[in-house]
Design a protein that fits this description.
Elements lengths: L8 E3 L15 E5 L5 E6 L3 H20 L2 H17 L1 H12 L5 H24 L3 H5 L1 E2 L6 E9 L2 E5 L7 H12 L3 E5 L6 H11 L8 E4 L3 H10 L3 E6 L4 H9 L1 H4 L2 E4 L20 H4 L9 E9 L3
Parallel strand pairs: 1-3, 6-7, 6-9, 7-8, 9-10
Antiparallel strand pairs: 2-3, 4-5, 5-11
């Protein structure tokens, strides 16, 4: 009796709640720790990016119009779906760990999945609280009430680093979507499989189609299009090279998009994140300061009877 070899899975893109193949027909082999091909992923093109941005733009207004309590519930439901796929996510993460099957890689993978789930829950809790922290009631002269309230910027482009392909992605995405934005994500180049499995969890959660869209491909090819696309109102990136960072910042001239690059000290600086960023550090990776770059502030004047 012959032993059947496992068939490497081909992961598709995740756009508008569906799993289309790339329009270019290209794919990328993903190698395991032993150098064998364990899966194929789509090699996304500029057209795929445009399709993802259109889906995000179409979904964003309704997502922003949902109550903060509902957005929190949906994010919590996503965490539940991730919990159900924890084993699969951990197995995929071991490719990035580089030591499949070893005790150390198993521990690291399990810790990363647990931290990613906890981070989703953290930002679910902020969905109905960040307006009180970032907004304010302003003292003014005259019979008026004056309020400053945060509102989502719209569609956010997210560029993920290669290290910690699941936790980094979740850390970049969660503060964006909890505030009512939609996003287009470019997953890790070296190990995009955790992002592809996360897409399956998103599809089976209550997350509306188009709020989170995930592409797999190469930063050198897609970063210039993230930078120049006029419908992308902001960028949230980590792990980019100095050249890619410069491209993103120069792209801000197209539509005055906000460019936030996470540096190794957790701040927003005009340099790349070349490793050293501790994605497990809750103090640096959590809180309303991660939400603030992706909201605009609207000031409201209202007559007062006094």
């Amino acid at each position: 009796m012959t032993t059947r070899l496992p068939i490497p899975k081909t992961y598709k893109l995740f756009i508008n709640g569906q799993f289309p193949r790339t329009e270019s027909g290209r794919s990328v082999k993903i190698a395991g720790a032993a150098g064998n091909t364990v899966a194929h992923t789509c090699h996304a093109s500029r057209k795929d990016l445009r399709n993802a941005v259109e889906a995000a733009a179409g979904a964003q207004a309704k997502w922003a119009g949902a109550t903060a309590y509902l957005r929190a519930q949906i994010l919590y439901r996503l965490a539940e779906m991730m919990e159900g796929k924890a084993g699969e996510l951990a197995e995929a993460h071991r490719l990035e760990a580089g030591a499949a099957g070893t005790h150390g890689s198993e521990s690291r993978a399990t810790l990363e999945v647990a931290a990613a789930i906890d981070r989703i829950i953290h930002y679910a809790g902020w969905a109905d609280k960040y307006p009180q922290v970032l907004g304010c009631a302003n003292p003014v002269a005259g019979p008026y009430h004056n309020f400053t309230v945060p509102e989502p910027v719209g569609v956010v482009g997210i560029v993920c680093p290669d290290d910690h392909p699941l936790l980094a992605l979740v850390s970049l995405v969660a503060p964006v979507v909890c505030a009512g934005n939609a996003c287009v994500v470019l997953a890790s180049e070296t190990n995009p499989i955790p992002a592809c499995i996360l897409a399956e969890a998103i599809a089976t959660s209550d997350m509306p189609g188009g709020v989170i869209n995930i592409l797999t491909g190469f930063r050198d090819e897609l970063v210039p299009h993230f930078a120049s696309h006029r419908e992308i109102a902001a960028i949230h990136a980590a792990g980019v090279t100095p050249e890619q960072r410069k491209t993103l910042e120069l792209g801000a001239a197209e539509n005055l998009k906000r460019v936030t690059v996470r540096s190794s000290d957790g701040a927003t600086k005009r340099r790349s994140d070349e490793g050293g960023f501790d994605w497990f550090d809750d103090e640096r990776c959590e809180g309303p300061q991660w939400i603030e770059p992706f909201v605009e502030f609207k000031t409201i004047w209202h007559p007062s009877s006094a």
